[in-house]
Amino acid sequence: MIRIKAGVPRRARPRTRFGRPLRRALALGLPTVWGAIAITYKLTCPLAQQNGLGARIVTSAVFFAVGTGLVVQVRRSLLRELRQIRQIAGAAQSALLRPLPPRLDGLSIAAAQLSAERGAVVGGDLYEVIATEHGVRVVMGDVRGHGIAAIGTVAAVLGSFREAAHDEPELPGVLRRLDRALARHLRERARAEHPASGALDPESPVAEEFVTVLLLEIGRDGEVRGLNCGHPWPYLLSGERVEPLARAEPLPPLGPFPLPTELPLVRCGQLLPGEALFLYTDGAEDARDARGRFFPLRDALTAAVAQHPLPVPRSVLGSVFTALLRHAGGTPSDDVAILVLSNDRKRALPHPGARGCDISGSAAGARPAATHPHSTNYPQHNGV
């Protein structure tokens, strides 16, 4: 059923309803006319019945012109259809992994994603930044596999995060919502691929799907809290220093195993004004050059912040992506997503525990002040 928007004149409706079939009829009609002209010439034209050299040259020229016209017309039609398909696919993929604003609640943001599958804008990596009443919440994830095949899982996780980020007062609640959304998506996929099973078969390939997820929450005072399910911890960029935001052991990825009853929320201190977080998927570290060497991500970051001591997200993102593509010789073999967030808020008084990272509710992973390179007197992102 075709829905007509309110306010569109009634006279415009036939154009909407019959415009596309008419264009298709013209696209098919012109080659038919070309073919009919060639056959008519061969059957009825006296010159075409002669066997002389001149007659053969003329007949060959006519058929060559007809063939050329057919090829040109078919090529134009295919290119027009391909252009329309790419526009539709680009719009759909942009709606899925929508562009992030350059600034959000005092944070500057830059993000970029590169799919390993040619022609795809979105692959198996996902990210989103949302300002909520609970703080700025960030998700960065990586679906098993890459390219177009992983887009369905990306849509399920991102759709759940965009709702849960506003609804859930605590970060563990957001993670549990993502876990349930992924499980529901995998059940539906298993049912669609194997209708007779009716459930998720443990030996089904769908049962092996998983998603690494990193959740961060940045408060108004810059305090950073996180939950990590099998994802690389981001780097903290402070001045010319580059170091991991946290060293706590991550939970297993979402999918294969149920979440534990108690989720260890990692408190990572404050993101001070002038500092930045560099989030990435493992495709950035796993990119190899022609000799099989991995991309030195930390070295590339160090070189980037040396040029920009007060990290500008777009500049850092551009420098690292340029170095990555140069290292990989073009397109990497896996999807790559990078997200840079810089704190542009006014400087505030340090929060107790402004430097360091501990796990709430657990002594494991707590780090004393003296062991952290950024320790003080306190205990321990649009796109290109």
Automatic annotation (TrEMBL):
Q: EC number(s) per UniProt?
A: 3.1.3.16
- What is the protein named? PP2C family protein-serine/threonine phosphatase
Which Pfam families does the UniProt entry name for this protein? SpoIIE
- Enumerate the residue ranges of region (Disordered): 350-384
Question: Which residues lie in Polar residues bias regions?
Answer: 373-384
Which InterPro entries does this one have? Bact_Sigma-Reg (IPR052016), PPM-type-like_dom_sf (IPR036457), PPM-type_phosphatase-like_dom (IPR001932)
Domain (PPM-type phosphatase): residue spans on this chain: 104-343
Q: Which GO terms describe its molecular function?
A: protein serine/threonine phosphatase activity
* Membrane-spanning parts: 21-41, 53-74
Which Gene3D superfamilies does the entry link to? Answer: PPM-type phosphatase domain
In terms of superkingdom, the source organism counts as Bacteria
The protein's UniProt keywords, in alphabetical order, are: Hydrolase, Membrane, Transmembrane, Transmembrane helix
Q: Does the keyword Hydrolase apply?
A: yes
